[in-house]
Amino acid sequence: MGVLGxxxxxxxxxxxxxxVQFGATGYWVEDEPAVIPYGTTLTELLNLPTAKTAPKPGSxxxxxxxxxxxxxxxxxxxxxxxxxxxxxAVPEKKKGQRKKPLAELIYSRxxxxxxxxxxxxxxxxxxxxxxxxxxxxxxxxxxxxxxxxKMYFDxxxxxxxxxxxxxxxxxxxxxxxxxxxxxxxxxxxLTYNYCSQVAPGETELTCRDIGSRASFRDKVRNxxxxxxxxxxYKKYFARTKKGxxxxxxxxxxxxxxxxxxxxxxEKYKGTRSAEMRAAIAKELxxxxxxx
Length: 291
Fold this sequence. Notes:
Layout: E1 18-22, E2 26-29, E3 36-37, H1 40-47, H2 60-66, H3 72-86, H4 102-108, E4 134-139, E5 145-153, H5 156-170, E6 173-176, E7 183-186, H6 207-221, H7 224-242, H8 247-269, H9 274-287
Antiparallel strand pairs: 1-2, 1-5, 2-3, 4-5, 6-7
Helix pairs in contact: 7-8, 7-9, 8-9
């Protein structure tokens, strides 16, 4: 059975005929006025095995699944592709770190041949869908207009393929949360490994909150410049609790301390000498009134 592209063998599948109009950052299904970000339907599909409910009302998934489409093999192959794409990726992009474009990442992991012509390498006889494109001017909810590509899809596999590839072009990508394991949609320009859903066992904290705290603790634990800054921060913050320092005075100090910390981090990063690093750390301690 085909998974990412057109299935040449299962001609008995129930057929639907859904109109989708693709715009700059999302798409419109049939005559629904709300735009859907690229990757939304695939993300929902990937979460179906662990979701407590059926596809949400208005979801294009309802149309295909109610017609008898089998989502399991589609989910299996996209999960395989995405896990190979992000399996050993860095948890979060560090400050100043270059974010590798998705196309470059796909190519560097040897997955580029699988996005066209064959269904993720599953079977060389399974082609990507052949779709006919028309263009239209769409009036959006805010009364602005957008030139869109209009396509019709008879199968879920074909629609998911186009939604996924257009999402890759625009920078929309489903990712699995490193904390709870659920899939979430990462939008262009962002680099997260954690979703924004409430974390398991928590009532308010999200997985992203927990991940950020863990990442920050690791950063402090592994760098003495950060350790010195945090000790100073706690020392001066305590003064606001005791009433010996106003919040305004603390905020001024905190901004100056961040500037001194960042300057020290640049010097620290630029040398491998243990003696020089120790001197930089000592200088920062003096500047922050810890030594």
